Amino acid sequence: ALRFGQQRKRGDRLSEKHTEAAKPAEPPHEKIPATEFLKAYVLAKPVYSDSAELSESRRLAVKEAMRHAWKGYEAFAFGQDELAPIQKAGKKTFGGLGATMIDGLDTLLIMGLNEEFERARKWVETEFNIDRDQGVNFFETTIRIVGGLLSAYDLSKQTVFLDKAKALADRLRGAFSTPSGLPYSDVNIKDGSAKNAPWGWSSLSETATVQLELNYLSHVTGDPSYAHLANRVFEILEPKDSLDGLYTFQVSVDSASVGGNVITFGARADSFYEYMLKTWLLCRKDKQFDMYRRMYTRAMAGMAKHLVKKTSPAGLTFLAEKAMGGGTIDKMDHLVCFVPGMLALGAKEEAEPSLREEHMRLAEELAATCYYMYRGNHNTGLAPEIVRFRPGEDMVIDQGARHNLLRPEVRTFLGRAGN
Q1: At what angle do helices 353-375 and 290-306 cross, to 10 degrees?
Q2: Is residue 35 within 8 Å of 314, Cβ to Cβ?
Q3: Residue 239, CB half-sphere, CA atoms under 13 Å: how many?
Q4: How many angstroms from the chain centroid is the CA of residue 238?
Q5: Does pLDDT of 387 surpass 70?
Q6: Of 210, 219, 165, whose CA–CA distance to 183 is shortest?
Q7: Which is it for the CA torsion 301, 306, 308, 310, positive or negative?
Q8: What are the tens digits of pLDDT across the range 247-289?
């Protein structure tokens, strides 16, 4: 499907002997100073040799957690975008298109939760409705709804998912009706009319994170128009002014200009770089997609040159943000924790040994910092949304971000390490 590196083992129902694995986790960890953390978890390079039985119990515990979460969603928010668990009610946050259900279809299939999948499939077949006056975000709807439907189709080969994905994509393609060919951020799914966001600009992520979904849609339908629209975005952006392949995150879809004064791998830019690599991996048999690999390689070199920094006194590696015309902003979003997995995935395909080694080393160092966001500087075991780095203090929690949004980025790099 469209989610690279996912483990797709189908498991049996949770057996009696594994029910202990589904119990709540241990009490919160004690705080660990960054220097001690690095010595124990990084510099010592501990070797983990989990038994097959332990790995299986963990896998089944994850499956049971999914079953538990899905049971609550079905009971209180079936067909809604999200569940508000305390209120026990559904929420319409992505246009009322059933985002949780559709984005979870492939997970149900991968885990072998076939009864749950069949109930969701019936909802998609009979209740999924785009014939209504509803504005949606083009980027979010493409990656979550079109992407979720295509992933379900890829795994099941049931044409209902492809038919629904194509119908929705045909409405969303109105976003590309701009002077530049870069997509508007907002689309009405009833008639395909599109417009700019109220503040007049789009982000890199909104503009350039639909290439996996639309290229795959062209592949399975035989209609090249979806891929043409998506790939044109990167053709437009590649020659724009950048700092060694790094772009500020504000994009004008009217003039095709890139503006703003901050370069980041966090919010509003993250998946732009991720899709460079993954689109090339998906489509690399076609030489025209070498553009994506070229942009990715240049961006990774620019990232290493301008954004990689170390904390003091421990020496944690992190990715700063860059203020154009100034220095760095020593903060890192939790979103940035997708980078270790991206680097590891790219390193596996890198032909130059020295560059492959450099990317893997950086991936490991950044992964340690992301792990420390969970393990080290507080006792809840949960990472904050944003951390800052101060001389002599290593990592501190941003005062406005003392919350955790259940983001999956850290799990993606653990999967890469396991491969």
Answers
A1: 60
A2: yes
A3: 4
A4: 22
A5: yes
A6: 210
A7: positive
A8: 999 999 999 999 999 999 999 999 999 999 999 999 999 999 9
Dihedral of the CA atoms 290, 292, 295, 298 (nearest 10)?
A: -70
Which of 296, 293, 369, 301 is CA-nearest to residue 336? 369
Residues forming the active site: 140, 270, 385, 409
Separation of alpha carbons 63 and 141, rounded Å: 26
Bridge-based pairing of strands 331-333 and 89-91 is: unpaired
Q: What is the pLDDT of residues 102-122, one digit of tens each?
A: 999 999 999 999 999 999 999
Please give the DSSP secondary-structure letter assigned to residue 123. Answer: H
Token readout for 373 is 């966001």
- Contact 9/290 with Cβ under 8 angstroms? no
* Residue where the block lists tokens 């504005």: 135
pTM of the model: 0.88
Q: Which residue has the tokens 């799914």?
A: 189
On whether the CB atoms of residues 185 and 252 are closer than 8 A, the answer is no
Separation of alpha carbons 307 and 298, rounded Å: 14
